[in-house]
Amino acid sequence: MNTLKDILYRVPIEAVEGNTSQQVREIHIDSRKVGLNDLFIAIKGNASDGHDFIEIAIQQGALAIVCEEIPVSSFKGVTFIKVTDSRLAAAYIASNFYNNPSKKIKLVGITGTNGKTTISSLLFQHFKSLGKKVGLISTVNIKVNELIYPTKLTTPDSLSINYYLNEMCDEGVEYAFMEVSSHGIDQQRTAGLDFAGAVFTNLSHDHLDYHPSFSAYRDVKKKLFDDLPKNAFALTNEDDKNGIFMLQNSKAKKYTYALKSHADFRAKILENNFDGLLLKINDQEVFSSLIGSFNASNLLAVYAVAKLLGVDELENLKTISGLKAVAGRFQYFVSKKDKITGIIDYAHTPDALKNVLETITDIRTKNEQLITVVGCGGDRDPSKRPLMATIAANLSNQVILTSDNPRTEDPEAIIKAMEAGVNPVDASKLLSITSRKQAIKTACKMAQPGDIILVAGKGHETYQEVNGVRSPFNDLEILTETLINLNK
Ligand SMILES: CC(=O)N[C@H]1[C@@H](OP(=O)(O)OP(=O)(O)OC[C@H]2O[C@@H](n3ccc(=O)[nH]c3=O)[C@H](O)[C@@H]2O)O[C@H](CO)[C@@H](O)[C@@H]1O[C@H](C)C(=O)N[C@@H](C)C(=O)N[C@H](CCC(=O)O)C(=O)O
Ligand SMILES: Nc1ncnc2c1ncn2[C@@H]1O[C@H](COP(=O)(O)OP(=O)(O)OP(=O)(O)O)[C@@H](O)[C@H]1O
Ligand SMILES: N[C@H](CCC[C@H](N)C(=O)O)C(=O)O
Ligand SMILES: [Mg+2]
């Protein structure tokens, strides 16, 4: 098993030099991980070119190389496979190498600008509560039933995806839910996966640093649905203006969900306040401790997926009602003494920030002050910076602009770009404090009894990244500790 020939099944090949009946030990796309008898796949990236590391990989023991260009110098005993697209080849090879794990479990992909982590994590919780063995691949972590692994990307590279799906198969996992990012689709990380279904949540301004235009970003997301097999389901949010477009060329069975429009799966919000949501789904009243209308939409998507995967109606509604908030997604608490509400949210796009602030606006009394602490990440779409500041200023009584993950950029320049979006009439609401810790502390000092503090942008993240170094940082911890220390 696992001869080179076997794992090349379905890979579009241009040329082969050497023997393909050798046994491959491991497969790698990073030369630094290559060992004796491994296969190295050279990928042309944005930052570097894997082809530059072919020689190093061979020195480390690679017995075969998959690449888009075979090097001119010859290497004795090494097999070269020339392909048109190394990323696509990597995805097929990974799937073959791990015995096509996605075919053995019911794998559901969730895509869209916002809501992927929330829906996939809620689905994991939901199916776990139903007594199933479940897997999860998300921005926050990767879960193989009880086991939890850290992750750096929302959608990992194809080798990692298939590695974890294989581990899920070994653990007897029946259902797996994974976030499918636009980078993931564009870089073929999810190519060749056998999805039982896919969900589209919504589309708004994001990642335009990477995709050439909004329509290119939209079309990449659509590809997930274009590639679904006939027997899969394609579920889309009809409330989003791109919802129907996503399914246009899909061969899968098409379904819609919506709060506002006519759809196959519908829900109505009966109550929406700081205690939670009261929904009407299929004429049944369902209570959830989750907050905000966007979570009504997320819960409806969870209900619909469970239904499409064959979960019994009553069990479905009962379990939905017990679902708990996902880390860093509208996580909130109320301080003991001054009853200050602290909210931590991962909103890092204009649309998500607007949603969170509108949700708070809908359910607050307006006798209190709403203080928003927010920043924008470095090395990410700069056009969202002024927009996010405009939204924060429009919908809050006080705004503190600060750093998110500056990465390789100057945090003060990012804050300046945000400030440019604030209307001069809102200038009195505005403070800029570069240190995120200091910004959160200042919000706590300003807060009067009953006020609300929203800390947006980093959610579950437990680090702050500056110039490639990740130092411990936790919004929730800093916010709770400061309020306790101030005896508020
Ligand atoms: C822009 C982007 O998506 N980059 C990803 C991409 O990098 P790349 O193609 O530029 O790779 P590269 O660094 O140029 O290297 C090219 C190849 O040479 C190899 N190499 C490199 C050095 C070496 O010594 N030896 C070697 O073999 C690399 O392993 C790679 O195979 O492929 C790499 C391997 O899969 C990813 O780690 C990397 O993610 C970077 C770290 C990243 O930050 N990505 C973010 C933007 C991302 O993907 N985010 C999405 C969306 C999140 C959301 O929706 O909000 C996500 O799914 O997480
Ligand atoms: N259905 C939704 N519609 C709009 N906003 C949402 C929705 N669900 C969650 N949000 C908001 O967007 C933020 C990000 O949510 P979530 O982490 O679930 O999205 P994501 O798609 O996984 O994002 P990422 O691409 O960063 O991984 C949340 O913190 C919340 O404020
Ligand atoms: N998955 C997103 C997360 C952004 C989170 C925000 N805190 C930031 O660092 O910009 C990205 O990598 O673009
Ligand atoms: Mg996510």
TrEMBL record:
List of residues binding meso-2,6-diaminopimelate: R380, D404, N405, P406, R407, G457, E461
Chain span(s) of sequence motif Meso-diaminopimelate recognition motif: 404-407
Protein name in UniProt: UDP-N-acetylmuramoyl-L-alanyl-D-glutamate--2,6-diaminopimelate ligase
Residues where N6-carboxylysine is found: K221
Organism: Psychroflexus maritimus
Gene symbol of the encoding locus: murE
Needed co-factor(s): Mg(2+)
Sequence ranges assigned to domain Mur ligase N-terminal catalytic in this UniProt record: 24-97
Enzyme class: ligase
Record-listed ATP binding positions: G112, T113, N114, G115, K116, T117, T118
